[in-house]
## 1
Amino acid sequence: MRPSTAKAVALALVALAATGVLGFLASPAHAASNGKIVVALDFAHGESHKYVNYIVGNLSSIASFVLINNSITYDELKNVDVLIIGQPRTSFSSSEVAAILKWLQTGKRVLWIAGDSDYGSGSNVQKIVNSLLVAINAKLRLEYGSVYDNVHNAKAFYRVLGHVSPDNLPGYHTDIISQGITKPVLYHGPDVVIWQDSKGQYHDPVTEPFPGLIRIVWNYNTAYIADNNPPPLVLYDPTVDVNRTFVMLAAEVHDDDLVVVSGESPYGDYEPTWSWMYHGVPLDGPKFVTNMIKWFKWWVTSTTTPKLETPPKVDPHTGKPISTTTTTSTTSTTSTTTTHTTTKPTKTSPATSPTTSSPTTTTTTKKSNKALIWGTVIVIIIIIIVAAALLAKK
């Protein structure tokens, strides 16, 4: 091969490595070259646009926004880091669920889905949210009820105030969420977050946390649960669960993704969480939503997934962590341990609520992606070696 030909081939191989293969490795949208993440806001399921202009305008330095006005497809999501679905009023089609699943399987994604109370048409929103959470094999759910507070509110018991107190889990950098937060956030006509295990039983995230759970926004301990419309409550009891705290917004580590569930929406709604003042009550809604997006940016750009941690159990009436450790009941002939705790029986799902049967989700796609990436790295190395050899012949 003539020196000029060898040089041309070598340069072509280097260009291929730089623009083609390396371009493939950079194709996920995790922090674009401008340092921003891509956040999609869903409007394809009857969500309101209230305060969207404020969110997009104020967060333009850390995120680029995509508004989804038609059905959700994988092509629309493939370059998106964060998908926020605020109070969906119409159900997701099977193709939309498949698109969201495929998107989540690409790794390091964040899905934030928001619900509503069971007042009026809100009960349908709860069913839609829970159905999607079942379909993606998440643990978090919305209770089929409403939460009220006669003390900590914005001049009405249903305009509930929440306090931003994320679990102190250093591996998850939850300190980002609470930075600069000094005032409550608004949850107007909200619901609360619970979780469901693989056997279909429901649990209180306040007293029964699981590994990978991150509790972020709480009621004050003057709140109480209510049941307005079918389906019935699946966990809490209006005659028992009074003057206590609930979880208003929580996240779960889902493989290396984050699934965030809240009882109200950051945008849309009658008065969304972005609100900075309501009926004369000053709020930290804009700071909170901004911090959440900053936290999402840390998550999707991090090169590792933190080890699963279990947050502490919390006394629902005092709001303080429970220091005692619950022991597992075992039969022993040498000693007996007595634990003085009161645990309410866990209710199981009624026939009308979503079941735990869901499309089988595996990590095959993520594993194959990792294998493909390593294979691509090897190809790049070979290309560079061949190019160097050809240049050496010049």
Note: Confidence is low (pLDDT under 50) at residues 1-29, 325-373.
## 2
Amino acid sequence: MAYFPENFVWGVSTSSYQIEGSVNADGRGKTIWDTFCENPQNIVDQSSGAVACEHYQRYPEDIRLMSELGAKAYRFSTAWSRVQPEGFGKVNQAGIDFYKRLVDSLLEHNIEPWLCLNHWDLPQGLENLGGWRNRETAFQFAEYAEIMGRNFGDRIPNFITHNEPNVVALLGHGWGRHAPGMQSAAAVMAVTHHLNLAHGLAVSKLRETVPDTKIGTVIVMHPVVDWENDPAGSARLDALSNRAFTDPALLGTYPQLLEAELAPFIQQGDLELIQQPLDFFGLNHYTTMRARSAQDTALGVEILQPPAEVPQTIKGWEINPEMLYQQLLELKNRYGNLPVYITESGCAAPDKLDSEGKVSDPERVAYFRDYLRAAARALEDGVNLKGYFAWSLMDNFEWAEGYTQRFGIVYVDFATQKRIPKDSFYSLKHIFQNNYL
């Protein structure tokens, strides 16, 4: 049996573009993901987040589900283009008002709101000016952070700057599988540094605007395994994916392996701006990575699929809870034992409604239990782990995979928008309400 501390934070996570829908409602501006989805070749099922889960209209029902689950916290992202339709200039009050309604409803249900400012959906107006490749975008992001702090600082106890900026850099600008669909090493380096700079500037601005709130960032970290097969490729993948954002934010340095490539984009004083004191670190973790050097690609490295004999999800991600344990220990040892929250963890599974209208998802139930046991071991070994947020509350638009991959603990019938809690929902409900498994 695994036990968790009495004040352990149990929650669920979502993101704006994946669930909100209503992309043309109430003055929302266009984002890079709206644009990316206009090319049917970019999304597996030629879909988009235009409707998604209709959370913009149905959020009261979704919050009631969180309450039934026993979630103490909800990590969500705000769509920058709802607040500033172009990413700069005039504030759209209708967008602010929507998030105020959402936050007020969460508080009424005793669910703590964790607001993330950036979960990939950059306003297209900023992309037209160079997006994250443009240093000026970092300063626009700080302005957006100030707007959100001013409007929500009285009711948001935890602000997050970025969610998985490493994915924005690598998949969006290096491998081209995500918006804006670029394949350029120079773009990756520019975006990496400017996202880091944006983080530091936003933290500084939030400290000025809402000095009593807690502030952190969220990075997805997946240990690179089987280094012996390709040491050079493994080192490069590890630096690009696992170190290029954590090292500057927490140590004030970049990985030595990337210093020369990043140098053209770094100005004097930038690293001091980036390394702001943080109240917590958000770790997203799902799987492991294996590297293959690939000089014919923009980044010079690719991620390999795990061997067929390795346990994996239907998405092809290795199931290896031991690596979550190792990742948590490494965070403690490398960066100091600051408070850590697992802000995303979960798996895709072949979910289907049965004849009784229910959804059995034993793969996901087992995944959560095994990974939570690994988290409990890390707690016993001194890791300052404070909470766990399941990904995700409900099935949603899964980026380039469209609606072909289901990660939710609540099943969404996208034809009717009916929500149906899965077996994993009830399994987590027991854990959340009893603090052990």
Note: Residues 185-209 form the longest helix (25 residues).
## 3
Amino acid sequence: MNTVSVIKIKSDLDNEIVKLMDLSGAKDLIKSGDIVLLKPNLHAVQHYTTGGTTNPYVVAAVIKWAYKCGAKEVIVGDSPYYGLSDPRRCFTETGMGEIVEKSGARWVTFGEHEFRIFRSASRHLPEEVGISRFVFDCDKMINISAMKTHFNCLVTLCMKNLKGCVRPEDKAAFHKADVNRAIVAINSLIKPHLNIIDGTVGMEGMGPASGTPVNCNLLLAGKDIVGVDSAASFLMGIQPEEVMTIKRGYQAGLGDMNLDNIQITGDKLDDLKMNWKRPDSTITEKFPNLIIRNKGACSGCNMNLLVALNDVKSESEISYNAVVMGQDEPVEKNSVLIGKCTSSFWKDYDHISGCPPKSGDIKKLICLIK
């Protein structure tokens, strides 16, 4: 039976991480001389108190634990969302880089280094996809995701977090087909030795970058990536079978989403269960008449639209009935088009170019107040 550990944080993070590792069966994971890769979620340039990124102090506690276990070197690596002009900012401006260095590890942005190329790996992936060589060159990989809702995938947890290992230019292609199936395919190629969910501060509502912080003080860990995500989604008030990455991952044999088949160690799930606001209901509540057509839109356009909408005070400020992005097509006459993917319709509609356009420019376009 697979094991997922769940703990409510009651003391300092160093002690809680040791406890989490013991409960998850990872006590002897790291061997003397191992090179260890930690993959946090630094999707955007946000402080961890927003819930938008992995808490750097959780990462620091894992670094200390790994060195105490005998690790030779610990590397912390990630690649932010497609469209961030300077990827290093996700380390320098979030405080992650400084805290990692003080903990004795080094940090890398994957896009500045080599990728292993996979061709025809899956019909759900681009014909050619690059995955960071750090994933394959390390002895142990520990996946440390944030705990958030997600506009496209309902939640973003450990399975979704592995998309950050992919070559930047391949990321947008994920959304042009079925992003959930593409994430599952990536999980078939990348196999972390342990998966941790940082639930110190989560994000509900308009995630993954424009939602509301949720102070949870939770940590989850397990070797079964589907099982860990299933437990976390349950704690968010979302049934695992509602999350397509989890459901497809289970169907692909990547793990078990049936919580009755998973041994939960530590605290009880039912005692910690919450009811998080979902992205679709949050947007509908604030903008009941606004239609968003975003089939095949990448995370860059989606996220920047959410940032723009989050900054709009009310629907009365919006001058359009529909927003169209990605591979979707305008249906409503009063539509506005976002991003270069919609260029074939530009001659007939108001639009903004860019890949992706800046959130401030999107807000100026869609609002009555120019």
Note: The chain is about 30% helix and 25% strand.
